[in-house]
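Incident review: delayed structure delivery

Summary: a single-chain prediction request sat in the queue longer than the usual turnaround. Root cause was a stuck worker, restarted by the on-call engineer. No data loss occurred. The affected request and its eventual output are reproduced below so the record is complete for anyone auditing the incident later.

Affected input:
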Amino acid sequence: MKKVAIIGTGNVGAHVASAGILKNLPVEFLLVDMNQEFETAQVLDLRDTILFSSKTKVSGADFGDKELSQADIFVITAGVAQQPGEPRSALLKRNIKILKSIKVSLGKLKKTAIVILVTNPVDILTQVASEIFKLPKGHVFGSGTLLDSARLRWRLAEKFDRNVEDVTGWVLGEHGDSEFVAWSTVSESGKFSEQEKQEIEHSVMREAYVIIEGKGSTYFGIGAALAEILDAVLSDEKKVFPVSSPLNGEYEITGMSLGIPCQVGMSGIEKILTADLTIEEKEKLRFSAEQLKIFLSEAQ
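Output delivered after worker restart:
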C-alpha cells in the first residue's frame, strides 16, 4: 500500500483525504499538522468514513517519523489562508517561509517520491519547491489550473445542456489573477459571442473570491481535483491535466511554473504537452509567467 502524506490538515488537506477515501484509493493517508490535538481529531473524523472504503487507511504522523520521510507522495496544503478580498500573491512571502521549513522538517526524501503543491500561490511555490526538494524532473508539481478548468467545464456543460464529461476546455497560466480560458481548447467555442466568452471567463476567475467571501475558503473542488491527480499517479493512468509544471523552454518560458496540459502518471509529470494555442493565448501565457516572476523576485 502506497503512503500519501498530507502536510496541513485544515479544510483543504482534510478534503483531499476525504475525497481519496470516497474514491477508494489504495493508500494510507498520513496526516501531519503542527496542532497535534487538531490532527488527532481530523484523523478520527476521517476514520469514521473508512467503513465505506475497502482500500484506504488514515493515520496521523509527525515530522521526524521515519514512516513519514519514506512516504511515496507528499501533498502540501499547509500555509497561511487567503483572506477575503486578498490576492493570492499577497500570501507569497509567508508561504515560501513555511514551505522551506517543511522541507527542513521532512529531511531527505527517497528519489522516487512525488511532491504535489496545493498551497497558494501554487505556481510560485511549485517553482520554489522544484528547486529546494531536488527530486527528479516531473516529481514536483502543483495542482495548477485543474480546479479552474473544472469551474469552466461545468459552466460550459450548463450552456450546452450536456454532461460535464462531454465538453472540453482548459484554463491555463497562473492559478490566480492572470489565468485565462484557452478558447482554442473549448469544444464548439464558436457558438459563443465575445461577450459571452468574457462573461464566462470573468465568472470562472471570480469564483474563488465569491466562495472565500461567503464561507472563508474553498475545499470541496480542490479536494476532488487532488483525488483525481492522486488516482492518475497511483494507477499510472497517463491522464492529461492542466497542472503547474516548472517550465524550461516550453512555450518559450523558463524559470517559472504554470498551469499547462501535462501527462500525469506514476512518475508525476511524465510529459509536458504542447497545446495548439493561438498567438494571443501564447502571449497571455507568457504574460502570466512574467507576472509571477515579478512577484517571486519581490519576495526574495
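Verification: The chain has two domains: 2-142, 146-299.
Action items: add queue-age alerting; document worker restart procedure.
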